[in-house]
Design goal:
The longest helix has 19 residues. The protein has two domains: about 50 residues; about 70 residues, Homeodomain-like (Arc Repressor Mutant, subunit A), CATH 1.10.10.60. It is about 70% helix and about 0% strand. It is built from eight helices and no strands. It is elongated, with a radius of gyration of 16 Å.
């Protein structure tokens, strides 16, 4: 692997790590591009080339993964969880959650109601398992 590719990957990983740590914060492409020390347009292209999805989609998916965990493991309301994971509106959260998981946050929570922690699956596995076919 060339030095230029290694440098690009390192910059993209730095930005992705920032999203993983600060997913609750309002992160936008210019902010993430600054973390990677590249222009916003270059960042958006390179992030997608490196990880196979846009920075916005990655951040939304990360937020949904965290929401899945909170829906399974807490009694917090869906609205509270929506804001806890960084969404600015309940409508956007519900629409995004349904698009990624295939059911509403309330339906997802209902499926896990009354199950012990040992029966719950990790969010990363659930994401792959629950992704709609096609």
């Amino acid at each position: 692997m060339s030095r230029a590719i290694e440098d690009r990957n390192r910059r993209m990983l730095r930005a992705r790590d920032t999203m993983d740590r600060a997913y609750v914060q309002p992160l936008d492409v210019p902010t993430l591009a600054a973390v990677a020390h590249v222009s916003p347009a270059h960042f958006a292209r390179q992030f997608r080339a490196t990880f196979g999805e846009t920075p916005h989609r990655y951040l939304q998916r990360r937020r949904v993964e965290r929401a899945m965990e909170l829906l399974r493991d807490t009694d917090r309301s869906v609205t509270e969880i929506c804001f806890d994971v960084g969404f600015a509106s309940l409508g956007t959260f519900s629409r995004t959650f349904r698009a990624v998981i295939g059911e509403s946050p309330s339906q997802y929570r209902a499926r896990f109601a009354g199950q012990g922690a040992a029966l719950r699956m990790p969010a990363c596995w659930a994401m792959a398992w629950m992704r709609p076919a096609g």
